[in-house]
């Protein structure tokens, strides 16, 4: 079984809770620490987000 990992900071579900989301047809995960940037400053992590769905 593969650990679910935050697309931005690479923390795993064994370290912190991660939330499941879908973007561009892919399933990715985000931790609570990275979620505020995803909501309020998506331009800060846009490149990381696009790399996660490649």
Detailed description of the structure:
The protein is an alpha+beta fold. The chain has one domain. Helix content is 31%, strand content 19%. The protein is built from 2 helices and 2 strands, in the order ββαα. The protein has helices at residues 35-40, 42-52; strands at residues 19-23, 26-30. It has a two-stranded antiparallel ribbon. Strand 1 and strand 2 (26-30) form a beta hairpin. The chain starts with 18 loop residues before the first strand and ends with a helix.
Give the SSE map.
Layout: E1 19-23, E2 26-30, H1 35-40, H2 42-52
Antiparallel strand pairs: 1-2
Protein traits:
54 residues, two-stranded antiparallel sheet, globular
Shape: globular
- Taking strands numbered 1, 2, ... along the chain, how are they ordered across the largest sheet? 1-2
Give the CA-CA distance, first to last residue: 21 Å
Mean pLDDT: 92
- Name the helicity range: 25-40%
How does the major sheet shape up? 2 strands, antiparallel
Structural class: alpha+beta
């Amino acid at each position: 079984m593969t650990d679910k990992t935050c697309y931005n900071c690479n923390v795993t579900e064994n370290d912190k809770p991660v939330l499941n989301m879908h973007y561009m047809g892919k399933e990715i995960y985000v931790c609570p620490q990275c979620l505020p940037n995803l909501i309020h400053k998506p331009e800060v992590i846009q490149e990381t987000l696009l790399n996660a769905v490649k």
